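Methods: example folding runs. The two proteins below were folded one after another, and each record is reproduced exactly as written to the output file, sequence line first and structure-token line second.
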Amino acid sequence: MYHRQRSDTNQAGIVDELRALGAAVLVVSAVCKFDILVGFRGKNYMFEIKQPGKKLRPAQQEFHDAWRGQIDRVESLEDCLKIMEE
């Protein structure tokens, strides 16, 4: 069973900023091994938000390694936008 960890302190700001840009943001950290699911301009993005310099926990790293779709570790709105603009 997956137990929810405390959110990184930068998560709320990133979520608010993404929503202000018109993105749909679903916080899924309570049920998933990543933090947010973002819908923007017809595409979906999975992001794990971390504080600068912090690494993924072992279970998160295992999930990221096994996932066969897009999932990214981000630290800021700018990180999200770089990925979403690709």
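Second run, written to the same file directly after the first:
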Amino acid sequence: MKRSAISAVSLLLFALFGGGGALSAAGRANVLYIENNNPATGQNAVLGYTRNADGSLTDLPGSPFYTNGTGYRNTGEIIGPDDTDGELLLSPDKLFLFAVNEGSNDISVFSVRLDGTLRLVPGSPFPSGGKFPVSLAWQNGYLYVANRGDGILPVMVTPTYTPGTRGATNFSVMQIGADGALTLQTGMSVNVPDGSNPGQVLASNDGQFVWGLVPFVPTNNPPTDLPPVAIFPEAQSRLLSFAVDEDSGALNNAGPEVFLPYSNPLFTIAGVNKGGYMLGARLHPTLPILYANAVLANTLTVWTWNATGELSFVEAVGPGPSADPCWLAVDPMGRWAYAAAVHANQVTAYSLTNPMAPAYLQNVTLAGPQGPLPAGTPEPYGFTTAPFNISTDPTGTYVYVVNHATCVTTSVDSTNCPVGNAIHFLKINPDGTLTEQPNSPFIFAPEDVPTNARPKGLVVL
């Protein structure tokens, strides 16, 4: 009886922590998560969907899953506040989902159940260590947060700048507990200039490095060989490199911040250099390569890093026929890259057969309701809907694209503005080109994504 009892306990422990742990991680599949980014106080939520064989989506039971935090509304639809990526993050073991609450300056953590449904971790949400958290990365049991801060950026047409709270614009470090709870590591934040709008943080697969993308670093006296971003006369994009202390999680400077070489002829259009503005960084899945969009130049840029994590510019590809590529996806096998172009409501496909020199393949105009924004409206977009976050599924079969409604008010176009919040799904063909599926896009119901919200963040399992 004693041996039988021991055997029973051993089997139970194996099921819970041995074989069961592996099965639970593998069981979380064919699911998609997105934040509705609801700006109503305490109403931000993660929407969960089952991904069907044809790429379409079905609501998960219990969705939406509330974060107990608040989203953010870019009321003027200006450039800057929405220029972010990585608002949702899944832990490598698929047990926890992390979500930013940009409007309440905190991070929510969910445990991910076997059926894909979510359960809020006790204590959520946790303070982000800054203001307006917008992007997340995982490394060695630590969570890295890009806090956009409350400094006001220069805006289109009339450049202005108002400093924000000192220290609120940063990359912060949070330790992740066994239960998913977060503990801010005080004294470890890396501050960046107010108004610089850090929009993304990325982590290498080997546990060694973290990179930050800061699109609008203010500079009042740029060198003559570094002309500023055309639409922001006193700002330039920077990529920051950090080596990670695997014991403490601290971020150590891994080299000088880098920027695009303005001498490259691909960045000059009609005699004006437009290469200084970068968004949508992504890492190659197996090689030390970072890709980023040079937005106004309509190009894809290629960077590599050395043994210390310092980045070096390699190549620029383009310009393609699209307009303003902002966000980027790379398929899990490193075969293709896809850029979401906000102004034209399009997706551009690239071949990565030579990963150091991506080759243009195709430009796809997204389907679904859309209308041109009338002349004179303040929105920096071409249509009533625009693609933002983009991701492939883990098998490299589909590309999912989250679209924002771009209208300041629905009265701009009472037919198309209310249905601009949507998610598109496109089949990846054997040659890397895309075909949007017949039942795409999936238009969010207003009870899930209110008309004054702009969905952000995308995790595809």
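Comment on the second run: The longest helix spans residues 2-17.
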